[in-house]
Every structure is written in structure tokens, then in C-alpha cells.
Amino acid sequence: MSRLHTTFAARRATRRHLREERALARALASAPTVESAHEIAALATRR
């Protein structure tokens, strides 16, 4: 049972990471200027 919980937890973590990456990609794509896209990318590297 523990292995099953570990598998589910790992899958949730992976999905969360992919969701954050998609949100970042959307934010970069919709940035109004190149400078703001650069700022978003810089903030993302600090997390």
C-alpha cells in the first residue's frame, strides 16, 4: 500500500510541476513587452 501512495504522490508532483511550467509559458507568451517577458523569466529562475 505504501508503494501505491508513493506512486500517486510522485504523479501529483509531476502534474503540479507541468502545470506550473504551462502557466509560465502562457505568461511569457502573453507578456506585453520583451522586457516584461525577461522579468517573468528572471523571476521563474529564482523559484
Features:
47 residues; mainly alpha; 2 helices; elongated
Fold and architecture overview:
- With 47 residues, this protein is mainly α.
- The chain is 87% helix and 0% strand.
- It is elongated.
List the helices and strands in order.
Answer: HH
In round numbers, the mean pLDDT is 92
Total beta strand runs: 0
Distance between the termini: 33 Å
Identify the overall geometry.
elongated
* Radius of gyration, CA atoms, in whole angstroms: 15 Å
Structural class: mainly alpha
Count of DSSP H/I helices: 2
Percent of residues in helices comes to: over 70%
Low-confidence stretches: none
Major pleated sheet: none
What fraction strand? under 5%
SSE diagram, text form:
Layout: H1 2-29, H2 34-46
Helix pairs in contact: 1-2
Short description:
By secondary structure, this protein is an all-alpha fold. It contains two helices and no strands. α1 packs antiparallel against α2.
